[in-house]
C-alpha cells in the first residue's frame, strides 16, 4: 500500500522507537511502539499540525495536546468507544490459552480542555483576539 515504517522491530512487529508514514495522506505516527502498535508519541500532519499524547489500538487515547502551526495549543483527552462488530469470533472456551483477538474498531472523540497560545516562549492562558 506504500506505507513506510522506519524503526525498531521485535519478533516481526514494530517495537521500540519508530516512525510510520501513511502513503495516502502523508500523515505520520512517531513514537514508542509495543507489539506492533504505537503507545505514546505524535500524530503529525503535512501542514505542521500535530497531536502529542497516548494511543491505544493505534488511535489517540487519554490526555494529549493538539499543537497548531500558529503556536496555539488545545489540551484535552480522547475517549474511545468500541463499535459493535458482527465479525468478532465467539468467546474462547480455553481461558488459560486464549486465542489472540483482533483489536476492536473504535470511534475517537476529543474532549477539549484548555486552549492556550505560545508567544515568544511564554504560554498565555487566554487566547488573544485575532
In short, what is this structure?
This protein has 130 residues and is mainly beta.
Q: What would you note in describing this structure?
A:
The mean pLDDT is 86. The protein has a nine-stranded antiparallel beta sheet with strand order 1-2-3-4-5-6-7-8-9, with no helix packed on it. The protein starts with a strand and ends in a 6-residue tail after the last strand. The chain is globular, with a radius of gyration of 18 Å. The chain has strands at residues 4-10, 13-21, 28-34, 37-44, 50-56, 59-67, 72-82, 106-119, 122-124. With 130 residues, it is mainly β.
Topology:
Layout: E1 4-10, E2 13-21, E3 28-34, E4 37-44, E5 50-56, E6 59-67, E7 72-82, E8 106-119, E9 122-124
What are the main properties of this structure?
130 residues; 9 strands; mainly beta; globular
Instruction: Give the low-confidence spans.
Output: none
Overall mean pLDDT: 86
Number of helices: 0
Sum up the overall morphology in one term.
globular
Number of strands: 9
Rg value: 18 Å
Secondary structure class reads mainly beta
Amino acid at each position: 500500500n506504500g506505507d513506510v515504517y522506519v524503526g525498531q522491530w521485535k519478533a516481526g512487529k514494530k517495537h521500540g522507537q519508530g516512525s510510520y508514514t501513511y502513503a495516502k495522506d502523508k500523515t505520520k505516527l512517531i513514537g514508542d511502539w509495543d507489539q506492533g502498535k504505537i503507545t505514546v508519541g505524535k500524530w503529525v500532519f503535512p501542514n505542521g499540525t500535530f497531536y502529542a499524547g497516548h494511543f491505544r489500538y493505534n488511535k489517540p487515547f487519554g490526555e494529549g495536546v493538539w499543537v497548531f502551526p500558529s503556536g496555539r495549543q488545545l489540551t484535552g483527552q480522547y475517549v474511545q468507544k468500541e463499535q459493535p462488530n458482527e465479525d468478532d469470533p465467539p468467546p474462547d472456551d480455553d481461558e488459560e490459552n486464549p486465542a489472540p483477538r483482533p483489536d476492536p474498531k473504535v470511534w475517537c472523540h476529543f474532549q477539549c480542555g484548555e486552549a492556550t497560545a505560545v508567544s515568544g516562549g511564554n504560554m498565555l492562558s487566554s487566547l488573544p483576539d485575532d
